[in-house]
């Protein structure tokens, strides 16, 4: 279904990208400062098969909503985000550009009400397609990730399938694709998703296999570990990528429709003591905010690798695990779990070995977009895509 992207030559030779590599772009990255700021013009069109612009939302009348008109549109001297994003296809015509609708901050209340009836669903679908066509998008990435949750209703489980079926039919008639983003939580999967029914009405299903741990735990752990850690017990035995992917397949999602999420960011803690700094180290507070993302408990990969180079952070991998963590004890006692060049190779190989439909990054702008750390721009995403494509062929 997805054509191999062309080999493009720029300052450096880009790898041949084949298969489904979905890359989310956070539209608000244009507001960041310094090397954290990423403009659409700085993206590499050949890096991904699907670029996804996050986010649009929904209005009270159930029509699609442009969340940041100044950044997204050209009106009134705006930054023309939508049009610049889809114009990447002028460089690589085989690229697909999608608009993501939803996200955690949008909640479920309006989506739940919109999905209740065929009439309200039709209002949303018509307005969404009009917006997609106006700005030359190739489809919709539907990110109502938590039906029945976050302000939703029990009926969402059934209505969500009705909505996806009608969306898929309408988009397909326009030659467009439908992808969705779904939760890694077993309890949410059980409550919110009729998995076999969903599988019939979507092209690809991105599983957000990250944020499985974080500062809310008050102890350190990797937020996107591929396998369980030897000391995991109880619910933590499920909080790893392999367990999540295996559960989605067991519930009825074809592996070749599943897209495995790989984070381009780390989850960070402040250690309670400098004496304990492995997994399950006590950490009551989130880590300090990064200089560009400005969010406690979170750092983009670019922020982490920059700080490692400048401040001499320690890098370690727990025995039996694949993903790194890094810490700095002398001043702020920060501890971050994240991905690096080696770990994304292992994850890409896992996705290929298990016959998955693709890999996904959240978000491409959190990668080393300017080559601050290793010299190659977007090294993690390029490495993930290249490894997955070679291992899948």
TrEMBL record:
InterPro entries, per database record: Chitinase_II/V-like_cat (IPR011583), Chitinase_insertion_sf (IPR029070), GH (IPR017853), Glyco_hydro18_cat (IPR001223), Glycosyl_Hydrlase_18 (IPR050314)
Gene3D superfamilies assigned: 3.10.50.10, Glycosidases (3.20.20.80)
Keywords: Glycoprotein, Glycosidase, Hydrolase, Signal
Glycoprotein keyword on record: yes
GO cellular component: extracellular region
One example of a Gene Ontology biological process annotation: carbohydrate metabolic process
Protein name per the record: GH18 domain-containing protein
Organism of provenance: Scylla paramamosain (Mud crab)
Lineage: Eukaryota, Metazoa, Ecdysozoa, Arthropoda, Crustacea
């Amino acid at each position: 279904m997805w054509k191999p992207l062309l080999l493009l030559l720029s300052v450096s030779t880009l790898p041949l990208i084949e298969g489904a590599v979905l890359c989310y772009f956070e539209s608000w990255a244009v507001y960041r400062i310094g090397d954290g700021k990423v403009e659409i013009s700085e993206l590499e069109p050949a890096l991904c098969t699907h670029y996804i612009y996050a986010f649009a939302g929904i209005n009270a009348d159930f029509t699609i909503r442009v969340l940041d008109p100044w950044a997204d549109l050209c009106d009134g001297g705006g930054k023309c985000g939508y049009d610049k994003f889809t114009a990447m296809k002028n460089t690589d015509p085989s690229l697909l550009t999608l608009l993501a609708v939803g996200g955690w901050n949008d909640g479920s209340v309006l989506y739940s009400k919109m999905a209740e009836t065929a009439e309200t669903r039709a209002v949303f679908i018509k307005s969404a397609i009009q917006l997609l066509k106006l700005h030359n998008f190739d489809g919709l990435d539907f990110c109502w990730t938590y039906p029945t949750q976050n302000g939703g209703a029990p009926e969402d489980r059934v209505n969500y399938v009705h909505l996806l079926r009608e969306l898929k039919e309408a988009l397909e008639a326009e030659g467009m694709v439908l992808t969705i983003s779904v939760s890694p939580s077993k309890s949410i999967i059980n409550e919110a998703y009729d998995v076999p029914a969903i599988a019939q009405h979507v092209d690809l299903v991105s599983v957000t296999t990250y944020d499985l741990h974080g500062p809310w735990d008050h102890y350190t752990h990797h937020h996107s570990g591929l396998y369980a850690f030897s000391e995991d017990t109880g619910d933590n035995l499920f909080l790893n990528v392999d367990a999540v992917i295996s559960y989605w397949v067991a519930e009825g999602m074809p592996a070749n429709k599943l897209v495995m999420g790989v984070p381009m960011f780390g989850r960070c803690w402040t250690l309670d003591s400098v004496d304990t700094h492995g997994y399950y180290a006590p950490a009551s507070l989130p880590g300090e905010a990064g200089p560009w993302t400005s969010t406690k408990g979170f750092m983009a990969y670019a922020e982490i690798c920059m700080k490692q180079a400048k401040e001499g952070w320690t890098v370690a991998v727990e025995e039996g695990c694949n993903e790194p963590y890094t810490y700095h004890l002398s001043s702020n006692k920060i501890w971050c779990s994240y991905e690096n060049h080696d770990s994304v190779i292992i994850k890409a190989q896992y996705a290929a070995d298990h016959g998955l439909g693709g890999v996904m990054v959240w978000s491409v702008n959190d990668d080393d977009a300017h080559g601050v750390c290793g010299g190659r721009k977007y090294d993690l995403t390029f490495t993930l895509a290249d490894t997955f494509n070679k291992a899948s062929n």
